């Protein structure tokens, strides 16, 4: 199951070995293409019980990956959801078997633009921009194959924030009998025009970087469109933070210098690259960024169900927990309320909480005790109903 | 006064002649540098009365210029404030003598990065990135020289939206006896951390464009950092619109195509360049964009007055009209309210209106009858008090 990832031009360090499920037959995509073989890289935490009834699937966000509760193999940083996932934490790994898969289209071991493919002339090279257009539903179908592969017929819960929340919703809509409980957090049932536009700016910045080379940067050893990807990350970064959080994050430098120099290097691309230790452009593939942001932008659950969001959930037995954060302007509370209205219209069981926070969209990743208590309570309740 | 602008590498068309005031002695800047000579390009509309008491100065926004009420000499489009300025309009050119100057640091004839300077070795070349750091107060000081040069001791009103509103506020604070009435619109007394961050993204995009050449793109005929400047304009464009306005503007294209292809070319840089007819990168200089956005980011009127915004207006006899737009998230109503509180604390005469609009920040440029009626009424009242 575990095999070495080919040395990546974006990662000058030794190749990272990712735990993977391999499906030689591949899978069909919404766009009509067939991708084969299919690899799904994943991590698990905790132990699957004998009844195979305690599995919680966590879906990651745009630039996340499967390393949610352990040291990241490229950056060396803690897992991105260690605040939430671990023994005694809201997603309690002493009680639940937690699964997290790198999304289809990602760049941490799952099949995506950085993965190798065999060209018509028999040469092996990365998919690059030849990787087909994918959807959130394609990501979910790849995860379903992994879940079946792990011998699990029904998930106790599917949980995710931001793009992870889109996947959680898609799971409940596409595989309703496999999802006992669903927690879409800081998300929406479709991507807004403003969010699409911000993504378009990021993609334009990547396309404008001459090192992108029309998507074929991998053809030259060590070349990545670092500046374009950094600009994309910068603009996204702003949307993840509230005004208060942004002022707090960069406030120290604003206060420390004179009125006429305080801006120098606050957010300038070179200093931003230094500030991020270049880890983002090292760990993340630009073509994956293009592919995954497009998948988010395509996402429109109502459109997949005849234009009516409630139709996506009609007759569902899944229990839902919807959470938003008051200062999140990327996925504002109004989007969660629209989702809750549709779930109510579908006669679904749903609880909703808006968490007061000044941390913006990123709040779902951070220390928010009220959110942690609410999510933990929801999962305990779901587990008790199943006798887990 | 009128002299040809040197052929600009950003403008492949015939050189545009701008009406200009020339000040050989130049002026001192807040940063300590001295810029000489100083040219201030401007346009006037209407007739100065014998008492020289009917002059209204309009200050333009970041990418605006002095062509506010006539066909633009580069783009051929109508003036940017023809909805507001003209005979019988809120700023009534049959009653008022309207002045609009290209800001210091601009690229439409006033001294700025595109203007010629003589190097230490005697060569003449554009200022480029050697142009000093300027402030909103420097822009206002250059305008004050123009106003004096036109034989005007006191302005009936200073009016401006967005960065133009910053200038209007700076006029009232720096030259209080020259300003009878002041209308800062869709603006703030300081630039927020979020707004600074969006500007930083734009600057990073320009810096990342290899055609920027460290700011020396002018050294090669016809070369401009078009892609970087376009990405900067794209991200700014999003901040100028509300979610509703963005969906409306790009909604037609979103609706017209299939779910899997609707994103093609919505906002992608090449299509954006086509969509804008490349006029922005032709008419606007990238180094000016860097210079002016920095001036906006430095702006903090309270900091110029010991940290207390009210101190900027203490003892003022100027009458203020503050207007904001409900869906403007770049300069939200809360910023205008903070300004009004400071003006009240300074015992200034101030009226405030929040206009209900779904057009976002751009509303101040568009057809907003309630706003037009309120601004027109304020100016008529100010004129009547002066017997104009």
TrEMBL record, chains A, B:
Its EC number is 2.3.1.31. GO terms for biological process: homoserine metabolic process; methionine biosynthetic process. One of its GO terms (molecular function) is homoserine O-acetyltransferase activity. Residues 54-366 form the AB hydrolase-1 domain. GO terms for cellular component: cytoplasm. Pathway: Amino-acid biosynthesis; L-methionine biosynthesis via de novo pathway; O-acetyl-L-homoserine from L-homoserine: step 1/1. Substrate binds at residues 233, 362. Keywords: Acyltransferase, Amino-acid biosynthesis, Cytoplasm, Methionine biosynthesis, Transferase. The active site is at 162 (nucleophile), 328, 361. It catalyses: L-homoserine + acetyl-CoA = O-acetyl-L-homoserine + CoA. It is found in: Cytoplasm. Pfam families: Abhydrolase_1. HAMAP family: MetX_acyltransf. PANTHER family: HOMOSERINE O-ACETYLTRANSFERASE. NCBIfam families: homoserO_Ac_trn, PRK00175.1. Transfers an acetyl group from acetyl-CoA to L-homoserine, forming acetyl-L-homoserine. Homodimer. This is Homoserine O-acetyltransferase.
